[in-house]
Design a protein that fits this description.
single chain; 257 residues; mainly beta; Alpha-Beta Plaits; 3 domains; 6-stranded antiparallel β-barrel; 5-stranded mixed beta barrel; 4 helices; 15 strands; 14% helix; 39% strand; disordered N terminus
Length: 257
């Protein structure tokens, strides 16, 4: 969403306000009028881009008389910080257990099984790749406060997990090395367009060195490669699994690690 500024002008300068706002915004469409609380003023919401320079140029061009300009109260409420907070990607370090070692989510199924390596989907020293019968689970999470069990969410988007009661100890020598954090690649991503996508640890597709990493819960699109964190919100490549070129990016609203 664009940043906005609020331009407040005294009612007796209303004839200037419309001209100034129209000049600043480059168009009259989308200009909104209202009353600011506690003041007898008109309100205009305009695009902030280059506002300071544009005001200076317009004031010089219109040669507002000093007396007239002094009656105009310009209030610039820059919503950049609020907008950045609203649109910045939220990085979530998934916590399967409470601090006391209890499941933080509802246990939908309790199985018996074992883990044979660190997780492929996320690089955390408490995340594992586990099996129960013919079923593969990745990631499953352990806690030092919860002995002989791991909790395996199919996605972080839901409210339940599978609990695996371990038939043997965790393979600590095969554990991933990193502590839980928001560094590295996320294991799940939600886009601003509503896609919910999870790291696929099987065979997918690649274009050059960029792999189709994240399968999504609806549609034919996949998320390719790793997120770019050079902007807020973060972005990631998006294309169908059969794509031959990667031309588009999508914004990320949330990423789980």
């Amino acid at each position: 969403m664009p940043e906005f500024c609020v331009l407040a002008l005294l009612r007796d300068a209303e004839r200037y306000s419309f001209d100034l706002v129209r000049a600043l915004s480059g168009r009259s469409a989308g200009v909104r009028t209202g009353t600011l609380p506690g003041a007898d003023v008109g309100r205009r919401a305009i695009d902030c881009a280059g506002l300071g320079d544009r005001i200076a140029r317009i004031v010089r061009a219109h040669r507002f008389a000093r007396a007239t300009w002094s009656t105009v109260v310009v209030v610039l409420v820059v919503a950049g910080a609020a907008q950045a907070s609203a649109t910045a990607t939220r990085a979530v370090v998934y916590q399967a257990f409470t601090s006391s070692g209890k499941p933080a989510y509802r246990v939908a199924h309790a199985l018996r099984g074992s883990c044979y390596s660190g997780a492929d989907s996320v690089n955390r020293d408490d995340a594992w790749r586990c099996i129960s019968g013919n079923a593969l689970f990745d990631p499953c999470f352990s806690s030092a406060q919860a002995k002989r069990i791991v909790l395996c969410p199919s996605t972080p988007f839901g409210s339940s997990v599978v609990e695996i009661k371990l038939t043997k100890g965790l393979p600590s020598g095969m554990a991933d090395k990193d502590k839980p954090s928001s560094s590295g690649s996320p294991w799940a991503i939600q886009t601003t367009t509503g896609l919910k996508c999870v790291m696929d640890t099987g065979a997918t597709n690649a274009i050059g060195s960029v792999r189709a990493n994240y399968g999504c819960t609806r549609g034919s699109d996949w998320l390719w490669g790793d997120p770019s964190r050079s902007t807020e919100p973060w972005t990631i490549r998006i294309a169908p699994i059969s794509a031959r070129r990667l031309k588009q990016r999508v914004d990320i609203t949330r990423a789980w690690f």
